[in-house]
Write a structure and sequence with these properties.
The complex is a heterodimer of chains A (408) and B (490).
Chain A lengths: L1 H14 L4 H9 L3 E7 L9 E2 L4 H6 L11 E2 L5 E2 L7 H5 L3 E8 L7 H10 L12 H9 L9 E4 L14 E3 L16 H12 L4 H17 L18 H15 L5 E6 L14 H19 L7 E7 L19 E7 L7 E2 L6 E2 L11 E2 L3 E2 H12 L4 H7 L14
Parallel strand pairs in A: 1-8, 1-9, 5-11, 5-14, 6-7, 6-8
Antiparallel strand pairs in A: 2-4, 3-4, 5-10, 9-10, 12-13
Helix pairs in contact in A: 6-12, 7-8, 9-10
Chain B lengths: L4 H8 L10 H10 L19 H8 L8 H8 L1 H8 L8 H7 L17 H18 L3 H13 L9 H16 L4 H9 L2 H6 L18 H10 L9 H11 L2 E2 L14 E2 L9 E3 L2 E3 L7 H10 L2 H15 L6 H14 L3 H10 L1 H4 L9 H11 L3 E2 L3 H9 L24 H12 L6 E2 L3 H6 L7 H7 L5 H6 L5 H10 L1 H4 L2
Antiparallel strand pairs in B: 1-2, 3-4, 5-6
Helix pairs in contact in B: 2-6, 6-7, 7-19, 9-10, 10-14, 12-13, 15-16, 16-17, 19-21, 21-25
Classes of the chains: A alpha/beta (408), B mainly alpha (490).
Chain lengths: 408, 490
């Protein structure tokens, strides 16, 4: 029962004042899951181009990448040249992908499919309520969630974090500061709050003092200490800026569990481009940002996993305006030490419809062969110390058997 | 305040403001004509403990609006409470002007599907915040919040976003101060609740192996009535679910008289005999099973205790005093679940009087008491609701049916955002809110030392507080006050 369990917890928290430091230390060592959402339905068929596939070349006369253009991975697939910054990670086996992942929603609607994916639901079952990461946080940290347990980079709360015990939505770390007037100098206010909360021998007093400490730690990063390491250079766009801030939070060991960041611009109905052009620019932004993040955090590589998803893939064939239309399955990607990468999981040859399929509902393109929740659950298992029962609560009723993308 | 001709003219002269939106005009009308301003003079409490009248306004209301305290003092606590227990007698036009403009709130459950989801969410949440801040029917609004948590519905689940506005209006607000049994009966057939807790798919078709969906039945017993320790068994849950089978909602129902209402499908109902909590419900009652069931669970002694305890936890102390719980439970049983006498007894009790400063303000209450204390002008647009999101208290977004918790622990992770909201309000930087300190400063000018503290917290500051809050900037002083531990409690 929530009420009694909670009051027990609050009593424990009060009783265990000196023990709190120890609990904190384990939090600081925790793993961070970085959730990257490519909004708009990314055409991942050109991320991992099946250059050797006849249908691919035949149906995309203007958009297909040739064997010469791609960074050859194996006999079937080649990386888009703009993914070169991540080539090394692929070869090291730290960057991997699963082909033909998708939601069972057949509407082809950005809104519906994003919603369903972020809520972690199936179109055929009753929604579990809230976002899947929100549910995960509630199970994982529950009442002890702090201001920096979950962070969404941007201006709005993403649906996947809805229902989380606490989320900070911020564009940059500077948002995480005490904002009292005095020409931007909060020192006087900080001291006053330290005195007021320090005088309280209650849970409120202690958590107030902890909060002040936390922000001292973050504000220490505002200066040179926060500069990227190992010569990492983040691209100067909102995505690169956001990743840099996430990396700073990971280094500051503030107990960050989940960071969400979006990259839009994938709805390439017109003039998508091939090895260069519109989509290549977005891919480059993604690859350079992630590569800089990975380099910056070289000393902390065991402490994060990046997952990269999108609401759906696109059709196999190009349309008359040299773009691609909404499809179903896409290639899910992950980056990190716990990824068993360097290979493309999922069936070969790619299961795809060449045209709008009239026998099954929904748009054509790659089949949604692997339910996205199987892959998401695998990322969760590898990232956090959650029981199988808890994972099943995050995705009730779903088949969560392993896919093989993640180790530990 | 009597609307004078001069004031009317002044407002009329501002009519062109309509060209840029009517928010400002509504604000001016509220302040100048409808008594939403700040009185000439305020007399904040000056004792070392929280003032008893201030205490009542902190719990039976969302804290005092400037002038409320002096008014309550003149009336006496008993008369004030009596007035609040009859909200229909309280004129509330200033608040109505701000809060009655949201079209989607007037639609029936089925017709609300005409609106886009963001509009529905926006209008419902803005309405709730505006009512809490500006309504003079404060106890009513406080109880609306209480029952909204008690009968929690998450807008994000299924179609709930289309159905909650009518639930808020026809279930929560209609019965907030009425009778508990009526409230639960209304909730049981509310389309929003039927969808949220899967009543829509609770069917037992003849000649099939259908097993009833127990979700709502379980929460009805565990969370809405008896409480988890209320002495029911798994068998009772199943029997209750059988009683409820057949009640559903389908807005696309062909040839329905009223597609917006829940309805009963006899062909989905298990019409055999049931035994719930030891009471027999004979076979063949059909739709009437529901009323039998609601009578049994609402009339159970465990329900009286559960509701009494929950009220004490919300309004008295995190450790509900047993003496008061027992008296409230007896009253609840005696009156058949009447809510008004329960509240009358609670707020007049010595246990209540002894509990000053023991409760922690959840983010919503923190924000509303601050806005009220500063006589802030807001139309509750996105910028004002955003801090609630940051503080983990987005309205109608709690995912599980137990509702946002009363305990303090879950809210401790987001203190920084409270502090920053406090600073932003005090310095006039909070987007979507206008705070004009001039009339308050004038009204408190002759109140003596620590006037701001006494005005917002209801007592004199102690030595530590006095030293820490000292500042040569009024805005900083006020911001610190809103950020101080004392203001997080009530």
């Amino acid at each position: 029962m929530p009420l009694t369990r909670r009051s027990l917890l609050s009593k424990l928290a009060l009783a265990a004042a000196p023990g709190l430091k120890a609990a904190d230390a384990s939090v600081e060592e925790g793993h961070t899951l970085v959730h990257v959402f490519l909004r708009g339905g990314a055409d991942t068929l050109n991320f991992f181009a099946p250059f050797a596939d006849d249908r691919y070349r035949r149906l995309r006369p203007g958009l297909a990448l040739s064997e010469r253009e791609v960074i050859r991975l194996d006999d079937h697939y080649g990386l888009h040249p703009a993914l070169r910054p991540l080539e090394a990670a692929w070869k090291e086996g730290r960057f991997g992908a699963v082909q033909s992942v998708g939601v069972d929603n057949t509407s082809g609607s950005h809104f519906d499919c994003q919603d369903q994916m972020e809520h972690g639901d199936s179109m055929h079952d009753t929604p579990a309520g809230g976002g899947w990461l929100g549910r995960c946080l509630r199970l994982q940290v529950g009442d002890s969630a702090g201001a920096l347990t979950a962070v969404a980079v941007g201006r709005v709360l993403p649906e996947c974090l809805r229902g989380a015990p606490a989320v900070s939505v911020l564009e940059k770390l500077d948002d995480l500061s005490l904002r009292s007037g005095r020409q931007g100098n909060p020192e006087h206010a900080r001291k006053a709050l330290a005195a007021l909360y320090g005088a309280e021998v209650t849970l409120l007093g202690r958590r107030g003092v902890e909060t002040l400490d936390l922000f001292q730690r973050v504000s220490a990063l505002h200066g040179r200490a926060g500069a990227p390491e190992n010569g990492a250079v983040y691209p100067t766009d909102p995505f690169g800026d956001g990743l840099r801030e996430v990396a700073r939070l990971i280094k500051a060991r503030v107990g960050l569990r989940i960071a969400c960041i979006d990259l839009g611009g994938w709805d390439t109905h017109f003039f998508q481009g091939g090895a260069s052009g519109q989509q290549a620019g977005r891919i480059q932004m993604l690859a350079e940002g992630l590569a800089a993040f990975d380099l910056d955090l070289r000393a902390q590589r065991r402490r994060f996993t990046v997952m990269i998803t999108t609401e759906f893939g696109r059709r196999l064939y190009e349309n008359a305006s040299l773009g691609t239309d909404h499809g179903r399955g896409f290639a899910f990607m992950a980056l990190g030490d716990r990824v068993r990468g360097g290979r493309m999981l999922g069936s070969w040859p790619i299961q795809a419809e060449e045209d709008l399929n009239l026998n099954t509902p929904g748009p054509g393109g790659l089949h949604a062969e692997t339910d996205f929740r199987r892959v998401f659950a695998e990322v969760l298992r590898a990232s956090f110390d959650l029981s199988a029962g808890d994972i099943a609560k995050v995705f009730p009723g779903a088949d969560l058997s392993p896919v093989g993308l993640m180790g530990t | 305040m009597n609307p004078t001709r001069r004031a009317w003219l002044r407002t009329a002269a501002l009519a062109p403001a309509f060209l840029t939106g009517c928010d400002r005009l509504i604000s001016l009308a509220g302040r100048d004509l409808l008594g939403q301003g700040v009185p000439e003079r305020l007399n904040p409490p000056d004792g070392s403990g929280i003032d008893a009248d201030f205490h009542l306004l902190s719990r039976a209301a969302f804290g005092p609006w400037p002038g409320d305290l002096d008014r309550l003092r003149r009336m006496g606590r008993e008369a004030w409470l009596e007035e609040q227990l009859h909200p229909e007698r309280i004129q509330d036009s200033a608040c109505d002007l701000r809060a009655e403009r949201f079209e989607s709130l007037y639609f029936s459950a089925g017709d609300a599907y005409e609106f886009r989801k963001p509009v529905l969410r926006d209008e419902l949440t803005r309405h709730s915040l505006l009512r809490a801040v500006y309504s003079r029917r404060q106890l009513f609004e406080v109880m609306v919040e209480f029952w909204t948590d008690h009968l929690n519905i998450d807008l994000e689940k299924g179609d709930c976003i289309y159905l909650k506005p009518s639930d808020d209006r026809d279930v929560i607000r209609r019965h907030a101060l009425g009778n508990f049994r009526d409230l639960i009966r209304a909730s049981a057939t509310s389309p929003a609740m039927l969808v949220y807790l899967d009543g829509v798919s609770n069917r037992v078709r003849r000649g099939t192996q259908d097993v009833p969906n127990e979700n709502y039945a379980r929460e009805l017993l565990e969370l809405h009535t008896l409480g988890v320790d209320g002495g029911y068994s798994q068998k009772d849950v199943l029997e209750a679910a059988r009683c409820l089978s057949g009640w559903t909602f389908d807005r696309k129902r062909f040839l329905a008289m009223n597609p917006s209402a829940a309805f009963f499908r006899p062909d989905w109902h298990d019409d055999g005999e049931k035994v719930v909590l030891g009471r027999r419900i004979p076979a063949g009652l059909g739709a009437r099973d529901l009323d039998w069931l609601i009578d049994i669970v609402c009339g159970h002694p465990a329900t009286a205790r559960f509701i009494a305890t929950k009220l004490c936890r919300r309004f008295v102390s995190p450790e509900p005093p047993e003496s008061l719980v027992a008296r409230l439970a007896a009253d609840f049983e005696g009156s058949g679940g009447e809510i008004r006498p329960l509240l009358r007894m609670l707020f007049a009790s010595p246990e209540f009087a002894a509990s000053r400063g023991q409760l922690f303000k959840r983010p919503f209450k923190f924000l509303v008491t601050a806005l009220r204390g500063l006589a802030a002008d807001t139309h509750a647009d996105k910028a004002v609701l955003e801090p609630l999101q940051r503080m983990g208290h987005g309205l109608f977004q709690y995912p599980t049916p137990d509702g946002y918790p009363d305990d303090e622990l879950p809210w401790m992770g987001t203190l920084l955002w409270r502090w920053n909201v406090g600073f932003a309000l005090a310095e006039g930087r909070q987007p979507g809110v206008r705070v004009d300190l001039t009339p308050l400063r004038r009204a408190l000018a002759r109140a003596g030392d620590g006037a701001w503290f006494r005005h917002l917290i209801g007592r004199l500051p102690d030595a530590t507080e006095q030293a820490a809050l000292r500042s040569d900037s009024e805005a900083e002083h006020l911001g610190l006050l809103l950020a101080s531990p004392a203001f997080q409690r009530c």
